[in-house]
Amino acid sequence: MLTQTELKRNAAAAAIEFVLPQLTPSTVLGVGTGSTVDLFIDALAPHKHRFRGAVSSSERSSARMAALGIPVFDLNEIPSMPWYVDGADEVDHELNMIKGGGGALTREKIVASVAERFLCIVDESKLVRVLGKFPLPVEVIPMAREVVARRLAALGGKPALREGYVTDNGCQILDVSGLAIDAPARFEAELNNIPGVVCCGLFAIAGADVVLMSTQQGVRQLT
Ligand code: 5RP
């Protein structure tokens, strides 16, 4: 029986096999955040001479890549990327995702928006029928925290402040539990419209293009 870390490592290895044939000396990859992505970065480092570098979605991933000698670019310098590679907290069968468990949701959504395609790497525990069991992270401007929390409660959620946590953007996160998100893109648009919301962790208006899901029987590709 493989542990969750071994499953994540297998998903990361499958992602390397997936992107490697597409890398050229001018390729810049978008790289996300989290424990699965940490394993992806470690597996990517030996191939650093085959591509130009990466744009990262967090200080954490930037530091890890820099330590391994992968050049990290500012997004403002990079107009396009073929792939954005990242994990997820939940993914459904339509490839909608909840992300942001690691707090990097806003930069993740920004970097993903510049990439042509999103490659999601997960272990099988992340696959769900309906999104929402994992509390949905919502990044908020600190002075708007309470008004946003009231709006989220009116939408049926139970928002809880992520205590002692400040995002890379100097903002706070409300983790919203008690949701069963049956129309993810519509709900994402609704949350985006609340003044004070910087970004929500629903990736449904633009979901994943390919999911590599690691199972006890091997890695499955969902498209
Ligand atoms: C970080 C994220 C991560 O992709 C998500 O939390 C999954 O993390 P892990 O790979 O550690 O399970 O969205 O903001």
UniProtKB/TrEMBL annotation:
It holds the Pfam family Rib_5-P_isom_A. It comes from the Bacteria. InterPro entries: NagB/RpiA_transferase-like, Ribose5P_isomerase_typA_subgr, Ribose5P_isomerase_type_A. The active site is at residue 108. Belongs to the ribose 5-phosphate isomerase family. Catalyzes the reversible conversion of ribose-5-phosphate to ribulose 5-phosphate. This is Ribose-5-phosphate isomerase A. It comes from Parapusillimonas granuli.
